[in-house]
Amino acid sequence: MSIGPAAAPAASSSSQCGGEPSHAHQRPHTEAANATIEAAAAVLPPSSKAVRWRDLPNKDQLFILALCRLSEPLSNVCLLPYIFYLVRSVLPPANDNGSAPDPDAEAARVSTYSGILVAAFPLAQFFVSLPWGWLSDRHGRRISILAGLAVSVLANVGFGLSRSLGALLFWRVLAGLGNGNVGIMRTVTAEIVRERRFQTKAFLLLPLVFNSGMVASLALGGWLAEPVANLPWLFGPGGAFNFDGNPEGVGWALAYPYALPALMNALVLAGTLLLAVFGLGETLPGREATEDYGLRAGRSLLRWFRAYIYPRRGRGYATVGSQDGDALVEGGDHDEKPPTADTGPLKTSTPRPFRQIWTREVLASLVSFGLLPLHNSAFMHIFPVYLSSPPADNTEATIFTFTGGLGLRSASIGIWMSSFGICGILLQLFIYPRIQARIGTRGVFRIALVLFPATYAAAPAVRYVLLGLVVCAQIMARTMAIPSTVILLTESAPDK
Known about the structure:
The chain is mainly alpha-helical.
């Protein structure tokens, strides 16, 4: 089950923090089992990270899966830099008497509908996460991932070309439905890489790709929105794409000023979909050898490419077993098939009865796990609206009553938010593991709990440079809190 656009990726990134999975012998059929693997992998000692990226088995499958993971950040967070301006452009006037609307009331109205539009995506994910898991357990992981990508492509095209609030909401919900299969991708990671010594490194891949995709989508979303203003050399009056010589700019860019980011997302995801159709193998236990027309066509294309486009003399090709996705790789010393000593079917264990899991520790961890995305996701989605809102006179404002924002354009907001995303990635990679190793998971979580209210209280009262410091503090708290809640929840379970 997804816990929101901001929380989900960071929860996945808990695998960066070290620990050998104590339960790696279990069969990872469900999101719950796989979340346990990820959280346990988050406490590996540094010495266990000697495995290099090039040592990972099934790198072709992991690469395709990582690209598939881009679907959620591209479909979800790309609109944040321009959400305020998009809603304002399609929102009908509040009154019909022809009088000028009150700027503060209009900004509040836009903010309300922006929140509804943003919340539709994770709400749709919430309702379909379990059905996606059911579908993948019965019909295969491959069809579930391909179907989700296809829905995401369609939803992005529809969203970009919509000019009414109702249509935007429909396509936003559809995008959330298509991206409810995030848990399946984590499960596929565990099924692709079954050797315990490789799993920690493999579980780093998806969250890193997610965070990188989020940074790129925020930057591109800000710059590609309103292309006539943000990219005048391409879409402006004298732009390279203004073939008709329109003195105002490219016609379709004026009619659909916020279509380009969504259409770019659709193009990237369509390419990923094709790559997955031709190359992503089935990993559902018992069906690993299953092939369809797409995989057969992909194998033929790969064989043709290696024979005529990129031949290597003196080197033959060998077909590896289903453990490596039945992909064609070069023979010789670089065969990626893992040693057989640690492979093979994973054993299952008898699950504890559902009524026995509700210990005090589990309940406390679940409450923390649920409250964290509640306020963290709210901040992540309110913050760009605050940056977009026009400035207002707040001479008599208090910490609880204030209006207006900074009045930044979508391109500036995209740069701001992507810069903060880069900070989050660096903190996840280099700061959190060291702090967690020194003061423990609960100590890190307590520090985060102190930082959150301080940053939320200070955010509306500061401007520009100080606001950057506040947001960096919020990112620090988020980076420490999200993996900590995953680890605490896993450790509190009476039975893995």
